[in-house]
Amino acid sequence: MKVLRWELVRLRAQPRIRAAFALSLLGPPLFALVLGAQTGLPKDTLFGRYVKESGFALPLLVLGFAGTWVLPLLTSVVAGDVFATEDGHGTWQSLLTRSRTRAEVFAGKVMAAALTSVALLSVTTLSSLVAGLALAGDRPLPGLSGTPLGLGRATALVVASWASELPPLLGFAALAVLLSIWTRSSLAGVGGPLLLGLVMQLLALLGTLGSAVNVLLTTPFAAWHGLVRADPYFGPLWQGALVSLAWAVGCLVPARRLLLTRDIT
Amino acid sequence: MAAVEAHRLRKTFDGLTALDGLDLMVAPGTVHGLLGPNGAGKTTLLRVLLGLVRLDAGECRVDGTVGGFVETPGAWPYLSGRQNLEVFAGMDDAPGDIAEVLERVDLTDRADTKVGGWSLGMRQRLGIAAGLLRRPQLLVLDEPANGLDPLGARQLRDLIRGLAADGLTVLLCSHDLTEVDVLCEDVTVMARGRDVWRGPVAGLRARPGRCLLATSDDPRARALAPVPLDESESGLSFVATTDVVDAFVLALAGAGIAVRSLERESLPLEQALRELVA
User: Which of B10, B82, B91 best tests the A interface by mutation, with the highest count of A CBs <10 A?
Assistant: First the structure.
């Protein structure tokens, strides 16, 4: 817990983490401002046609973009740098000569990266919801079947949809941690997961993987689509959670071993 | 009990041998110098002592906690000096007082500015402060005077002397032989991953010295000499270790030859070191 506490203190002080939170906080309102100033609507995206009818449409529209690119970027900025930054600043020797073991340092840093990623997701969710309500008010959200969703159901749908991004988000965080430790480079730690995410998206688009597309870490980002149907189905959510867990374990186990056995030179 | 006792240390990095059967013994409460050319394995040894590098073989025992730094001490540039120390202290079970260590390394006035704008010398002092914060029994310092101006270097020497006077053992790795000469009681000379000499600094300087000998019977002394002797204006001259000199003197006495004078030249430390590691 000591490592976690001080890691969070350091993360809060880092300019890039502050920039990530600023993007989370200000991105959705800026997006709403741009949409508000336009006469046309992004009708080819899910809920795009309703952004000026209901305030609950904007957060789902933002989720469509964020789930693919922004959330992996935000979490990579945190988790991809959390270990490699010590190589960059030469601070491993000071950190690893304290009373904490390497295993404790690893656990504390991973938890700090995960908590910060969750905080970024929460801020983006709230900011999107507030920006949507400011843009179009709290009128009911037209469902995909045409049935309007009232205040309570629409809010629950938005929160549940954003929350469903958490498992793949943490999977990407674990991937970023592995690359951060393995390469000892912040650039690889931050850029690597984005590049791999792009490759996974392309593989999914090509459609050549068949059902194997479900094991890609980017697939669970779209699992929330099942929630917005008139008869919601949760299979993709559970499947996505399991796939994300497998990715997280598959990345964190070798990452931990690498750190524990590494010579700090 | 020795502050550091290491036997037959071996470490290889990607097929390159950094430590090759090194032995080290450091007496407690002393300033012990570590000398040797680049690539001798000094920094690897310090990393082993700090627990940063795992040994391939050998035993290393350190009496108490170890603090210090290797090469350039790291710090988070977006935090102030005090905040850096707060993070380090937060990861220790029983850390020292931050204000006290800042005062000790003379950084109190700049402690609340971000480290990103600090000079190398200030970072070196922060590294020492971070090491002291652990309340170590052994402080490991690798070229601590790097980046320090002459005044800063003198202050650092005073600081190290003060720490040793307080009972702390300091293992000092330095290329600055004057620093080693002034500060260290004992030294270990390393070359190619091994210890090639250890003992007091004075002994290192005297070790390869040429001896000038005058006897009551030089021709007979020459016949008894265990090493080649050269003629010189003031008598016979030869190069030998202390043990050989002792044996020679006893042999002369046993043969009834009086030793009228025996002088050992004291070599500059640099020359002594150069001859040792050659």
Answer: B91
User: Whole-angstrom Cα distance, residue A255 to residue A180?
Assistant: 9
pTM: 0.84
d(CA B66, CA B52): 12
Mind listing the pLDDT tens digit for each residue in B146-201? Answer: 878 888 888 888 888 988 898 899 999 988 888 888 889 999 999 999 998 888 88
Lookup result for tokens 């402690």? B111
Query: Which is nearest to A168 in space by CA: A67, A94, A40, A18?
Result: A67
Q: What is the pLDDT of residues A83-110, one digit of tens each?
A: 999 999 999 998 998 889 999 999 999 9
CB contact under 8 A, B134 and A98: yes
- Residues of B with Cβ-Cβ distance to A186 under 8 angstroms: none
Block residue for tokens 């791999």:
A196
> Does the beta-carbon distance from A92 to B51 stay under 8 Å?
no
**HEC string of B10-79?**
EEEECCEEEEEEEEEEECCCCEEEEECCCCCCHHHHHHHHHCCCCCCEEEEEECCCEEEECCCCCCCCCC
- Please indicate if any CB of chain B lies within 8 Å of the CB of A91: yes
Contacts of B25 (CB under 8 A, 6+ apart): B2, B4, B5, B6, B198
**Mutant choice from A5, A16, A97, A263 vs B, greatest count of B C-beta within 10 A:** A97
CA distance B188 to chain A (A): 22
Tell me the two tokens of residue B115.
């480290």
Q: What contacts 24+ positions apart, CB below 8 Å, involve A258-262? A: A258/A178, A258/A181, A258/A182, A259/A83, A259/A102, A259/A105, A259/A106, A259/A181, A260/A102, A260/A103, A260/A106, A261/B54, A262/A181
Q: How far apart are CA A73 and CA A82, in angstroms?
A: 14
Quick check: B72 and A15 CB within 8 A? no
Residue among A6, A86, A265 whose CB faces B91 most closely: A6
